[in-house]
Amino acid sequence: MTEPDKTPSLESSTNSAPGNGAGLVADGLKRRRLLKLGASGASVALTLTSRPARAWHCNTTSAWGSAQLAPTASTTAREGSHEISDECWSITEWCNNTAHGSLGQPWPHLGCNNTTQINAYTVGTLYQPYGGIPSGLTSSNKLMDKLKNGTQFQKYMLCARLNAKFVTSVQTCLRNNLVDQLPLMAGGSYSPPNLKGVVWNQTDIMNYLTSNWMVQP
């Protein structure tokens, strides 16, 4: 005698495990998407796995300042922020001329391809198009020397200027009403636009730059 088929039907399986039907539908949709991708699936997988492990949000100074004053304003800050792949040189990478992701080594972007050229590059050359040399620095100072031996505030400001020069997303975050805010921070005391009575000191400025992923140690 043939034994009855005891394999449960899809309907009975779904009924016996609440919520399982939704999972099966989701799995089916995933499989269909993968099948639809076909030959392009390999390139899609490569794109996903090669992306940076994190993405960062950077805010304008006014949006960030508002969020610090009122927790509810953090929602507005997030809505106005720019989500960007983690592509920005750190202070250490500038000091060691270390490549960062697809950006490569930093100093060749300044036209410096050997140690002699790197050590000769001045702060004044970097700031010539922008103005706003950080407090305590002069145009004749060697940039590499100050990246290594300057004050913490000077290092952060120099790195921010360098990254903003070559990373478009950093330029965007540092602009309020189309005005570059870095020169306004150079003296170590800064008032974000539209935040009456708010004044940042050097620590506040560095916290803004590092919390918004524009400068990392």
Automatic annotation (TrEMBL):
Q: Which PROSITE patterns match?
A: TAT
Q: Which domain of life is it from?
A: Bacteria
Q: Which InterPro entries match?
A: TAT_signal
Which residue stretches belong to region Disordered? 1-24
Ranges of Polar residues composition bias in the record: 9-18
| Protein name according to UniProt | Uncharacterized protein
Please tell me the species this chain comes from: Scleromatobacter humisilvae
